[in-house]
From TrEMBL:
Protein name, entry field: Uncharacterized protein
Cellular location(s): Nucleus
GO cellular component: cytosol; nucleus; tRNA methyltransferase complex
Xref: PANTHER family: TRNA (GUANINE-N(7)-)-METHYLTRANSFERASE NON-CATALYTIC SUBUNIT WDR4, WD40 REPEAT PROTEIN 4
Keywords: Nucleus, Repeat, tRNA processing, WD repeat
WD repeat ranges per the UniProt record: 154-187
Subunit structure of this chain's protein: Forms a heterodimer with the catalytic subunit Mettl1. Interacts with mei-P26 and weakly interacts with bgcn; required for the function or formation of the mei-P26-bgcn-bam-sxl complex. Interacts with nanos; may be involved in mei-P26-dependent derepression of the BMP signaling pathway. Interacts with Myc; the interaction may be mediated by mei-P26 and may be involved in the regulation of ribosome biogenesis.
HAMAP family in the record: TRM82 (MF_03056)
Record has Oxidoreductase as a keyword: no
Pathway of action: tRNA modification; N(7)-methylguanine-tRNA biosynthesis
Length: 363
């Protein structure tokens, strides 16, 4: 399931279906394909949908009128609108970024490539840079439109980088999250790390951590932390943003604050929201956090005050007019494939681990 929000609409996607909620009315449509990603344009006029198999659809909001359909050459993992609201960037699973223009039939132009699965893409607000993240721990900052010219890399994550977005109160900086359990803040022009949040320090359930490590270990994958699954952020004031994160298998949403003052960065855990089911998606819009529950087909809305407290909650039922089955989120297999095996042979990995542990016991 996917979620997108602006001032006038709340859009949820599940399977083939999209529910566009506006002015207390639901508009549910069948797109004809399984929806894997969804995004609203910067001017709030268009909704972009990524479908499986290999299709990109663009709708006019809030009426949900189909404006354009593109057939993609390969399966894709992420879409983003550009600063120009007719421009769409598609990150595909072979590592390429493709450009589409809803005002033109000449689309699907390759802009750049990675040697790894692309997981996210973002264009800077001044249109000068295209930022991409991949399975191989890298964040690449390329000049735009001359994307063959690389400005810099933001390097420091130890596992896949699944989310990137600009720091809401100061877009000179970039937020990222990873399978290594960290949230990092970068000066992306220089490629410098400015702040680092180790979410494992805020997890109190050691049993969940050990269970995940054992599951991954049985497949020859060595991990140190639970991976971050979702990330979203919102401006709190002129110096501070709130960051919401979900961590694999933990039924809590972690709320952090990140303050920038005189080029210094201060982060802290300021709240944890207990939830009944692990969310399918989360998104901040202004100071409201929208949490999509695919088990109950509803959205929980948490409104924050400027002192970082939750001042109200609301529940919006989605897909009421359709007989859409409830389901429980099990993202283990989806997460597992993003981790890289350090060894091709699981038995070799286990033997080396035993020798290493044996050596540690002797010392």
């Amino acid at each position: 399931m996917n979620l997108a929000v602006n001032d006038t609409v709340i859009v949820a996607a599940k399977g083939n279906f999209v529910d566009c909620y506006s002015n207390s009315n639901h508009n549910v449509i069948d797109t004809g394909g399984n929806i894997t990603d969804m995004v609203i344009s910067n001017d709030d006029k268009y909704l972009g949908l990524l479908l499986d198999p290999k299709q990109l659809q663009v709708y006019e909001l809030p009426q949900m009128i189909l404006k354009k359909t593109f057939i993609l050459p390969r399966s894709a993992s992420k879409i983003r609108f550009g600063v120009e609201n007719t421009h769409l960037f598609v990150a595909d699973k072979t590592g390429d970024v493709l450009f589409y223009d809803t005002s033109s039939d000449e689309s699907g132009v390759k802009l750049l490539g990675h040697l790894s699965l692309l997981l996210n893409i973002l264009q800077s607000k001044d249109s000068k840079y295209l930022i991409t993240s991949d399975r191989d721990e890298k964040i690449k900052v390329s000049h735009y439109p001359n994307t063959y010219s690389i400005l810099t890399y933001c390097l420091g994550h130890k596992e896949f980088v699944n989310h990137i977005e600009f720091l809401p109160h100061d877009e000179r900086y970039l937020l990222s999250s990873s399978g290594d359990g960290t949230i990092k803040c970068w000066d992306y022009i220089k490629g410098h790390l400015c702040s680092n949040i180790e979410t494992k320090n805020d997890i109190q359930d050691d049993l969940l951590k050990d269970e995940f490590k054992n599951l991954m270990d049985s497949d020859g994958i060595e991990v140190d932390s639970l991976p971050i699954v979702h990330l979203s952020s919102s401006q709190l004031n002129n110096t501070t943003s709130l960051i919401a994160a979900t961590i694999h298998s933990i039924k809590e949403i972690f709320i952090y604050s990140l303050e920038t003052t005189n080029l210094k960065f201060y982060n802290k855990l300021c709240n944890k929201i207990s939830i009944e089911n692990f969310p399918a998606s989360i998104i901040f819009h202004k100071l409201s956090l929208y949490v999509l529950d695919s088990t109950r087909n509803n959205i929980n809305v948490y409104k924050f005050s400027e002192n970082q407290n939750i001042i109200s909650t609301n529940i919006i039922d989605m897909f009421v007019s359709k007989n859409i089955a409830f389901d429980k989120i099990n993202d283990f297999e989806l997460i597992k494939v993003l981790f890289k095996r350090k060894f091709d042979n699981v038995q070799e990995y286990q033997e080396r681990k035993k020798r290493r542990l044996g050596g540690n016991l002797l010392n």
